[in-house]
Amino acid sequence: MSVVVTLVAFVLLCFKSSVLFAQTDGECEGESCASKKPTVVWLRPPELGIEGSGVSITSGPIYDAMAYLSTHLHNYEHQYEAYPVKRAWSLVQHQHSAQKVYCFYGAAYQEERAEWGYYSQPTSINLPLLIVARKALQPSLKNELDTAQSQPTQEYFESISLRALLQQNLRTVLYNDVNNVYADTVEQWATKNNVVRLNGLGKDLGMHTIALL
């Protein structure tokens, strides 16, 4: 199916985003455990702006944010790694010990996740959204902010109403079985003309949507 996708949104992560730590189980092997600092492995999915070697993240704005936050945890060693979302969740939930804990930076709060992980405070802020398009958006759409969904961010970006864009039949992508603030917002004005629905299983969704553009 040939599709021209003209709209995609990313959550803007900021220092107020929450992080989710795995709960440690107290296991430790070897005499070195008593003297060696435990390690926090900071996790993000592969995305724009992340650079590194293999799974290691070494630079980019997300790296800078995680590295800054890690300076407040003096009693730990720190690693920064990128994995697909499902793998990252699995590491947080299952692969941890007294000497290593996984932290999903920017994790959105869900009640069931709190049963096996610890959230920092405050929980993540999901708005405003950054819109990326193949072409310049019509001037008539500028500053038509839907105040029910967000607040003006004129200092950094032009404010554009997501509802107005979708009513123009500009298209965006929603992935099956992916629930987040963006998807919930789009669903309010979704039609067969302005939303393309795809199976996102096994894909890095952000990069996959960029590839569609």
Describe the structure.
Strand 10 (172-175), helix 4 and strand 11 (195-198) form a beta-alpha-beta unit. The protein has helices spanning 61-70, 85-94, 162-167, 181-187, 205-212, and strands at residues 8-11, 19-22, 39-44, 51-53, 56-59, 77-82, 100-105, 117-119, 129-132, 172-175, 195-198. With 213 residues, the chain is α/β, with parallel strands linked by helices. It is built from five helices and eleven strands; from the N terminus they run E-E-E-E-E-H-E-H-E-E-E-H-E-H-E-H. The chain is elongated, with a radius of gyration of 19 Å. The two termini are 14 Å apart. A five-stranded mixed sheet has the order 6-3-7-2-8, with helices on both faces. A two-stranded antiparallel sheet has the order 1-9. It has a two-stranded antiparallel sheet with strand order 4-5.
Summary tags:
five-stranded mixed beta sheet; two-stranded antiparallel sheet; alpha/beta; elongated; 213 residues; 11 strands
Main sheet: strand order: 6-3-7-2-8
Q: What is the N-to-C order of secondary-structure elements (H for helix, E for strand)?
A: EEEEEHEHEEEHEHEH
Class per helix and strand makeup: alpha/beta
* Number of helices in the DSSP assignment: 5
Low-pLDDT stretches are: 1-16, 145-154
Helical percentage: 10-25%
Strand content: 15-25%
Main sheet record: 5 strands, mixed
Distance, first to last CA = 14 Å
Q: What integer is the average pLDDT? A: 74
* Total strand segments: 11
Shape: elongated
Rounded to an integer in angstroms, the radius of gyration calculated over CA atoms is 19 Å
